[in-house]
Amino acid sequence: MSDKAIIERYFQLRLKLNDLNDEIESIKSDVVEALRAQNGFARFDGFDLTLRNYKQWQYSEKVNTMQTNLTNLKREERQSGVALVRAESDMLVLSAQRAAYDVFEPQATYDADWEPNDNE
User: Fold this and answer.
1) Cα–Cα dist 17/95, whole Å
2) Do the Cβ atoms of 18 and 104 come closer than 8 Å?
3) Are residues 41 and 51 in contact, defined by beta-carbon separation less than 8 angstroms?
4) Structural domain boundaries in the chain
5) DSSP state, 101?
6) Which residue, of 46, 65, 85, 106, is most buried by count of CB atoms within 10 Å of its CB?
């Protein structure tokens, strides 16, 4: 496949993935209810789907301040050269040129240690 063709194919697949993700989001609440009716578990074609409960925490101002300070210290260490690059990897980032295309690409979630290059 040519470079142009493989990049175009990537765009096509990402758009399909966006559509699939939209459909998944639209049925999630119904799936949760169906799983609750089945004791929180379903198996299909070698895969298990389990309903689990997670909590989102609201931390005190003290902890939030400490987190902000830590983030600032990390940035300072990167900029001053104290922090060392442990690994480097290329990651694809897709973004829409215009809102008219109605394309939303959520920020990729990588391990907390991965941060974008400050120069980009």
Assistant:
1) 14
2) yes
3) yes
4) 3-82
5) G
6) 65
Q: Please tell me the distance from the alpha carbon of residue 60 to that of residue 58, in angstroms, as a whole number.
A: 7
- Token duo for residue 86: 């442990």
Q: What is the pLDDT of residues 54-102, one digit of tens each?
A: 899 999 999 999 999 999 999 999 999 999 999 999 888 777 766 555 6
Give me the phi and psi of 23, to 5 degrees please. -65, -45
Q: Which two tokens stand for residue 19?
A: 């559509």
**Strand-strand pairing, 47-50 and 41-44:** antiparallel
Instruction: Give the model's pLDDT for residue 94.
Output: 78
- The pTM of this model reads 0.63
What is the rounded (10 degree) CA torsion for 29, 30, 33, 39? -110
What percent of the chain lies above the pLDDT cut of 70? 79
